[in-house]
Amino acid sequence: VAKTSDNPLIVQIQKRWDSLILVNPQLRPIAEFHQEVCKRIYQSPVHLTELPFQSDKSGDSSALLKEKLKQGIAFLQGEEEVLDFTLPVSLYRELLQMAFSYKRILNPYQSKISSGSFLNRLITGARSMVQADKSQESQRDIRQLFIHVLQGNMDRIAQEAEQLHLSPDLLLTLLHYSLMPILQAYGARLKPLLDLDLWTRGNCPVCGAWPSLSELRGADQIRYLRCSLCGSDWVYPLLRCPYCENADHEKLGYFFVEGEEKKHRIYVCEACKGYLKVFPTLDPTPTEFLNLEDLATLHFDVVAAERGYSRPYPFQKL
Ligand SMILES: [Zn+2]
Ligand SMILES: [Zn+2]
Prior knowledge:
Elements: H1 8-23, H2 28-41, H3 61-70, H4 86-106, H5 118-123, H6 129-134, H7 139-151, H8 154-164, H9 168-190, E1 213-217, E2 222-226, E3 233-235, E4 252-255, E5 265-269, E6 275-281, H10 290-296, H11 298-306
Parallel strand pairs: 1-6
Antiparallel strand pairs: 1-2, 2-3, 4-5, 5-6
Helix pairs in contact: 1-2, 2-4, 4-9
This protein binds zinc ion (ZN) (2 copies).
């Protein structure tokens, strides 16, 4: 019997999973793992002091932010070296420890889904975790790993994974989860400062990641892309691919899973073979639930992969 949490957020997350499991019992192992991760990453609130602009000595971060947005550069891009990775480093160590015990129950889902999917990165590999546990990576090395993640240096992640005897997908997933609390703190902090009229890109204006899902909001059905790493949202045309910016209607389409026509759709691009989940919503999905809703629609990732579509890793350079 799982111990009940007194953290209201964890209780809400548990309630959401319970209702999803009622409809789809297959989600149980994923739900359990996700809740264990959330208990750790959301155990204490993050307090940000200053915004980490290394190039800014004047202290006027809003002017600098505006300039970056105009140039199509996300807030955190170029600032990686000055980020405080203390919390991500300690979370990473905890999650690494924890992931091993979940390896067996998650294995059946392996290889059915696209490599860009969050869960696939979580469950593939997971071998030799014991060895990884024993290796004593220094705080500095882990910090460098986070910089590689944010800069999209996938080959460096792969190298590190090999040294740790871990699958690159698993390593990446643990690193992403470990980064979430601080990225979400930046997302919340920057929201009032962001002039999104200046941002026309398909990736996140705050952390630079690709969206993990999108929402068609309200009666106007305007599409908002959502970043599950930092929680940001930004408007993006429905008839344009966020990955390759293809706007040729002939090469864009969507499909849905039978019985879920009204709930979710998958928009696809024939130019780059990318896909993105689209959820009709009244209100924005709360930041801490974005990753949950993405995981809960794993069957969409399976169908998309079967049809030859994929999605990039969050910080992957295309
Ligand atoms: Zn983001
Ligand atoms: Zn495309």
